[in-house]
Structure formats: structure tokens, C-alpha cells
Amino acid sequence: MALMWIALGAVPGSLLRWSLANTLVANTLGCFVVGASGLLGSASPRRRLLVGIGFAGSLTTFSTWILALVVLLQGGQWPHLLSQIVRDGGLGLSALLLGTALHRRLVGLRHQGPRR
To answer: I want to staple 95 with a disulfide (CB 3.0 to 4.6 A). Which of 32, 60, 89, 112 is the partner?
Structure first.
């Protein structure tokens, strides 16, 4: 059953990744999705499989990112290599935290009920 949930998330995640031309956008969006879906909290195992492993896992491109870093390393482009690591890491972390804050806000609003 777990494989089904992973596959259901992986298909749209990989199709979205295929439509994006930029690795940085895909990875940052994947980090935001992980945060916004509440995976840092007490998410259900099904949500972790569907969204975390399936969708975000097929959307993000760690191997492509590492390959780009190795090309910079082999070219001796240390300043660009280091700035890309800091930039991409900072954007990914920021997107994850922003998504988590959004999730907590939406869950908090849902638990408060309608405003009068």
C-alpha cells in the first residue's frame, strides 16, 4: 500500500519537475511543499509517503544540483561554488520555514473555527 501512495505523489511531482527549466526553482519549491504540507510536524504516514517521498522526492533534484556543483569544482570556480551552496541552501531552508509557518497558520485558523 505504501508504494501506491509514493507512486501517486511521484507522478505529478516528476511531471512538474519536467516542466521546470531551473533546478533551483524545483528544489526551492520542493522545500516549500514539504513545509507547507506539515511534514515537520506530526503528519500522517500516508501524507509523508504521498507528499514527502512521492511528490517532493520526484520534484527535487539533489543529484542534478550536486552535478552542477562538481562542474564548478572541477573548473576551479571556488567563489561561484561556495556562493551557490550558500544561496541554494539558504533559499531551501527559507522556503521550508516559510511553508511550515504557512501550514501552522492555516491549521491554527482551522482549529479556531469561523470568526464572528
So the answer is: 32
**Domains of the chain, residue spans:** 2-112
Distance CA 76, CA 30 (A): 29
Sequence letter at residue 75: G
Q: In one letter, which amino acid is 62?
A: F
Nearest Cα neighbor of 55 from 39, 33, 38 is 33
Report DSSP letters for the chain, one per residue. Answer: -HHHHHHHHHHHHHHHHHH---HHHHHHHHHHHHHHTTTTSS--HHHIIIIIIIIIHHH--HHHHHHHHHHHHHTT-HHHHHHHHHHHHHHHHHHHHHHHHHHHHHHHHHHH----
- pLDDT per position as a tens digit, 11-26: 999 999 999 989 999 9
Query: Measured between alpha carbons, how far is 108 from 112 in angstroms, rounded to an integer?
Result: 6
